[in-house]
Amino acid sequence: MKNISVRKALESDVSLVFQWRNEPEIVALSDKQVNVSWNEHEVWFKKKINCILSDFLIIDVDQEPVGVIRFDPVENNATIYDVSIYLMGRNKGKNIGSIALKKAMHELVNQRNICALHARIRCENRISIKFFESLGFNFLHTDGNIDLYIYEVV
After folding, report:
1. Angle of CA points 111, 75, 13, to nearest 5°
2. 125-142 per-position pLDDT tens digit
3. Rounded to an integer, what distance in angstroms lies between the CA atom of residue 58 and that of residue 1?
4. pLDDT (tens digit, 9 = 90+) per residue, 32-63?
5. How far is CA 143 from the centre of its chain?
6. Domain ranges of the chain
7. Using 50, 70 and 90 to split pLDDT, how confident is the model at 148?
8. Which helix (H) or strand (E) element contains residue 80?
9. CA dihedral of 39, 40, 41, 44, whole degrees rounded to 10
10. Are residues 121 and 147 in contact, defined by beta-carbon separation less than 8 angstroms?
11. What CATH homologous superfamily does 4-152 map to?
């Protein structure tokens, strides 16, 4: 069994996350569906890792980085968080994402007073929809080409 862990993103992760963010499969499933420049990414990354309201995490398998999980408050509402996750290539379909996200959600719930998590998923992204449903997220509504799923913390 591989060792799957989740850790806070570090400044030293900036280049790797930039590379991942601009992978065609990630761009295609992102909200804006465009590549980001190094300067944009660097400013965003530093802001994100220093934000006390957000959690920016790296998924490691046997101490090798393989993906990202982010929790960001919805419109500065510290009780509802958006969740975002992606794994790179060969790490998909191996239950790594489920294990990592469950660990990260457990930590988030223990550290913060949250009542719900939202997952915003492109309507055509059937794999992500199935993934979040398998973790207990339920469809809430569609806004344009984005489906909103909710996980209510009990």
Report:
1. 60
2. 999 999 999 999 999 999
3. 19
4. 789 999 999 999 999 999 999 999 999 999 99
5. 19
6. 4-152
7. very high
8. strand 77-87
9. 120
10. yes
11. Gcn5-related N-acetyltransferase (GNAT) (3.40.630.30)
